[in-house]
Design a protein that fits this description.
This protein is α+β, with helices and mostly antiparallel strands. 37% of the residues lie in helices and 23% in strands. The protein is built from nine helices and 15 strands. The chain has a five-stranded mixed sheet with strand order 1-6-9-7-8, with helices on one face. Strands 2-5-10-11 form a four-stranded antiparallel sheet. Strands 13-14-12-15 form a four-stranded antiparallel sheet. Helix 1 packs parallel to helix 3, helix 1 runs antiparallel to helix 4 and helix 6 runs antiparallel to helix 7. The chain binds (3R)-3-hydroxy-3-methyl-5-(phosphonooxy)pentanoic acid. (3R)-3-hydroxy-3-methyl-5-(phosphonooxy)pentanoic acid (PMV) binds next to helix 3 and helix 5. (3R)-3-hydroxy-3-methyl-5-(phosphonooxy)pentanoic acid binds next to helix 3 and helix 5.
């Protein structure tokens, strides 16, 4: 006897970044953030959870390798689920086997934990018959995961309650609202990042005053403006806020002591190329954003994808020399799962 549930959850890319926690244990952020959830074809996690009275202990496999269940984030997720479980006490005592796979590199600044924990939260919620918003459960695993629970454009409200009850994600517009928005992922380097986002965030918050300034003085205004730009489909405004926010997150990281360096020479070349492309076009055609790694995500409209791919092929041909690790661009749609 057993119950099995399988779910798929995509990666989300933040245009207003979450970087810095006001509460490390509950994963409560210092600012609101906003992202677009990608389609499930290219960058997603698939998780199967199976509960059975025959299993002797809880076990987890990530990308085919058995990992320890002692991970505190995983335990937090399970704890949150059990609080809201609607299964009988008998079935709640059944042990779990969890199997999760990503179809893209893990921990390379491609928001793998976001997809992974959103997927785990969704699968566990289904298994334990948990109803209502599950973004808080995903957040207990990895902050940005709360935004992957919804499709389209999603805002994670930092909340003000010390328990974290109001620190949840809410969709602000479905993918169908802006159907010609495209996201191009340029995999510059898919090896594991040197400084994890958890360590990077903590160090930046403790040692870079600019991060607090950004969270308190810049983001509150910017997030309202970018949300309005999304609702009005104003690409120009959307693009400027996206690029500024990414630049400022990495500026804060660079101002940490010791500095957290995520972007590499190829990333900076992409930034320069995108500004040159925009300034020689009749309008802003592309926006870049970088998470905790060197890979670039580019936001653009469907009508400009072919031209931009041509520009990238010309100026940044894949793996043309050993210093350029850039490999490929995948055109991805924002999606509503
Ligand atoms: O959720 P985490 O701990 O993997 O942190 C994600 C941080 C960024 O990806 C850099 C920004 C974001 O908002 O997704």
């Amino acid at each position: 006897m057993s119950i099995t549930v399988t779910c798929v959850a995509p990666v989300n890319i933040a245009v207003i970044k979450y970087w810095g926690k006001r509460d490390e244990d509950l994963i409560l952020p210092i600012n609101d953030s906003l992202s677009a959830t990608l389609d499930t074809e290219h960058l997603c996690a698939k998780t199967t959870v199976r509960a059975s009275p025959e299993f002797k202990e809880n076990k987890i496999w990530l990308n085919g390798r058995e990992e320890s269940m002692d991970n505190p984030r995983l335990q937090n997720c399970l704890k949150e689920i059990m609080k809201r479980s609607q299964l009988s006490k008998d079935m709640e005592s059944w042990k779990l086997h969890i199997c999760s796979e990503n179809n893209f590199p893990t921990a390379a600044g491609l928001a793998s934990s976001a997809a992974g924990y959103a997927c785990l939260a969704a699968a566990l919620a289904k298994l334990y018959k948990v109803e209502g918003d599950i973004s808080g459960i995903a957040r207990a695993g990895s902050g940005s995961a709360c935004r992957s629970v919804y499709g389209g454009f999603v805002r994670w409200y930092k909340g003000s309650d010390p328990t974290g009850i109001d620190s949840i994600a809410k969709p602000i517009a479905p993918a169908s609202h802006w159907p010609d928005m495209r996201i191009l992922v340029l995999v510059v380097n898919d090896s594991k990042k040197k400084v994890s986002s958890a360590i990077g965030m903590k160090r930046t918050l403790l040692t870079s005053e600019f991060l607090t300034y950004k969270a308190e003085k810049i983001i509150p205004k910017r997030i309202e403006q970018i949300q309005e730009a999304i609702l009005k489909k104003d690409f120009e405004t959307f693009a400027e806020h996206t690029m500024r926010d990414s630049n400022e997150m990495h500026a804060a990281c660079l101002a940490a002591y010791p500095p957290c360096i995520y972007m590499n020479d190829t990333s900076h070349l992409i930034v320069e190329l995108m500004h040159q492309y925009n300034s020689t076009s009749d309008r802003t055609k592309v926006a870049y954003s970088f998470d905790a790694g060197p890979n670039a995500t580019l936001f653009l409209l469907e009508k400009d994808v072919a031209e931009l791919l041509g520009i990238l092929d010309h100026y940044l041909p894949p793996a043309v020399d050993n210093n350029l690790e850039y490999r490929k661009g995948i055109s991805i749609e924002v999606t509503s799962p």
